[in-house]
Fold this protein.
Amino acid sequence: MRTLLGVIIATILLVSASKVYSNEPTYVDDVASIINNNCVVCHREGGIGPMKFENYEQVRPWSPLIQYKVANREMPPYSYDSGIGIQELHGDWRLSQEDIDTVVAWVNGGSEYGDTDRVVQPPDLPDPDQWSFYQDFGEPTVVIPSIAIDIPATGNDLWHKHNVSSGLEEDRCIKAIQVKPRGDAKSVVHHANSSVFVDGERFGMLTEYAMGKWGEIVPDGVCRTIPANAEIAWDIHMFPSGLGAMAPNTAIEDNVVEIGMWLYSPEESKELTYKQDLSLYRIGNQGDIVIPPHSTYMTQGFHSFDHPVRIDSWQPHGHLRMNAASFEIFYPQTGRTESISQVSKWSATWHHSHIYDPSVAPLLPAGAVLVLKQWYDNTENNLNNPDPDQWVVGGSRTGDEMTHAWLAITHLDEEKYEELTARRMIAEK
């Protein structure tokens, strides 16, 4: 009897154990799809990631580090705080909490492959040099390259400014726009700003590129204009030492930066009434920035408009000591402050234009105040800080600091503002 009871108990325990094991995430059933959909685009042959994650053999040795980076939301590299302000974004690389929990449980369970009879199909990846919006819009309507620039292996920051023709003979409206350094040039281009000039007069900003930025999408129904016979004024900032392992003291010849634009037809462009522009909004006086060694710093700026607007995107900008930023709206009529966006783990190697879904993009009445804040950490706690013993001042060099944000804004009249506000109220019911 005891023997039979022992067998029954042992069987129950074995079945229970097998059930527990079978519920553990495996690479083939649970994790491969997460890695392939979110990580391999960079971590592959020819990608910018320092290691490859194209199969289990490549992933398994790095699984503890993957777990750490994923659990701390350091990877994928999209710094944007969850639970604060607007969360509906275009081009959001963040993993869901469910995916994070799956990766953590998989590593805790031993990073097992799972059923060895099953084979994980390799992901269908685009060319690493393909345009970000190719899947949405195909090839750009027009591509405007800079002149070729040679970058030495070492030395101080370099700036190159020159004008090139757009080649456009009619006013056009932009659907989407991306700045893309060719090939290895991406590792040495700090930023590449582009302005529009017509007949020698500045028309406005075209777009801005900084390390890691994937591009901008203009919401349906509005126009960011590139006028006929425009010249593009390039302002390209390069730093020879590059991004560490991506460009280890390597000279890059014929560095070219390209603007790809997806355009509405001339006929469609004429139908778009409301205009969007991209502008730099200062946060305090950059010339006043003085950050002593082993200290922190904060800047704060305010902006308002004499007409209603919609905020389409927000992109904070700083350098190596900046570590956080936020965007709020203050309503003087009510005294209420609304949190829109916050980044608590900002990194200069990944500049993102946080593009709000048009259904939730902030609608501001005339007089509402944009409140922009940025924080800086010149201590050893900042992992991006090259030298906490240095004094840091405001300036354009990589080792200096900046304090501004790029905002894409659609300018409205009272009629359009009331229409969009009414639509929101109906949708929320």
In short: Residues 273-429 form a domain with the Jelly Rolls fold (CATH 2.60.120.230).
